[in-house]
Design brief:
Order of helices and strands: EEEEEHEEEEEEEEHEEEEEEEEE
Number of helices: 2
Distance between the termini: 16 Å
Structural class: mainly beta
Shape: elongated
Strand content: 35-45%
Number of strands: 22
Helix content: under 10%
């Protein structure tokens, strides 16, 4: 049995941190040899919303004012509260909010609904004049001419993050006339409309990382280099430590090699960008005779 250790020094320096190369001291002949992942340590550091994933935008409209704002998320790792926090940060930048004492009043929000395993969007009616006890910010854009709600338009792929349908648009609720469609929508007497996501939110589209190794004979995998998968069981930014309880052996193609290449793929089998290059991967190589394989 032979152990190969790959670490940060083996990462291909292209900024993606998704490829590792192990160079043997000399060319090594392999015949009837099998390889398996024995352990991997890395940090949960791949983004779920980014330009590369094309899932980083949506827009909102300030009632019937005709003012529409596009929101573009900076590349990052977001949960639903941080998505909502960035949305409301943009509302501040655009002057689409009011101030109630020491608190800001926003007219749209994303919240978790754990009971329904859903994301909930709440849309509030925007006043047509300053309510009692409120003040307007210095950059306030003005009031809608008619009672109406802040409404959102969800783009493709971002919709998967929050579990809404493609091209979902919430209601303007002009003059509070919108009739909600149960069971995923409801409205109260103040014109507040609640929308529930209609499919399971896929907050992390790459919930699993696939590991591929060159020079293996795995005709049933696509791509045929895949030999292992890891799934983060820690919080964002924390260290993942994965040790399979039983090795899953894959045959190395017979031949003479001077290196092995390791690649990391997302759940969609496309190369994935990993932010933290602090990765340690242990591979075990055994001869078929040791495994009882002739």
């Amino acid at each position: 049995m032979k152990i190969i250790v790959l670490n940060q020094s083996n990462i291909v320096p292209d900024g993606l941190n998704n490829k590792m190369v192990y160079n043997f001291p000399n060319s090594v002949p392999f015949k009837n040899n099998y390889i398996a992942v024995s352990s991997i340590t890395m940090f949960y550091s791949w983004f779920n919303i980014s330009t590369a994933l094309n899932n980083n935008t949506f827009s909102y409209t300030w009632g019937n004012s005709g003012l529409t704002y596009k929101i573009t998320f900076p590349d990052g790792l977001y949960d639903i509260p941080s998505i909502n926090a960035y949305f409301q940060y943009i509302c501040i930048q655009n002057g689409t909010y009011l101030i109630n004492g020491s608190q800001y009043a926003y007219y749209g929000e994303f919240v978790l609904n754990p009971t329904r395993y859903a994301v909930q969007f709440n849309s509030y009616e925007i006043p047509t004049a300053l309510p009692t006890g409120y003040t307007a910010p210095s950059n306030f854009v003005g009031y809608p001419t008619l009672p109406s709600n802040l409404f959102i338009t969800i783009t493709s792929l971002f919709n998967l993050i929050i579990g809404f349908s493609t091209a979902f648009v919430s209601s303007q609720n002009l003059n509070n006339t919108y009739v909600p469609v149960p069971p995923y929508q409801s409205k109260d007497g103040l014109g507040t409309i609640t929308y529930l996501s209609t499919q399971s939110p896929e907050v992390q589209p790459n919930a699993n990382i696939l590991i591929g190794i060159s020079n293996i004979e795995n005709n049933y995998a696509q791509p045929n280099s895949i030999i292992y998968s890891i799934s983060p069981d820690v919080a964002v930014g924390q260290q993942i430590q994965d040790r399979p309880p039983q090795f899953m052996w894959n045959k190395l193609l017979d031949g003479t090699y001077n290196q092995l290449r390791v690649s990391f793929f997302g759940s969609d089998k496309a190369p994935i960008q990993i932010q933290d290059p602090n990765i340690t991967l242990l591979l075990t190589i055994r001869e078929g005779d040791e495994l009882g394989i002739k």
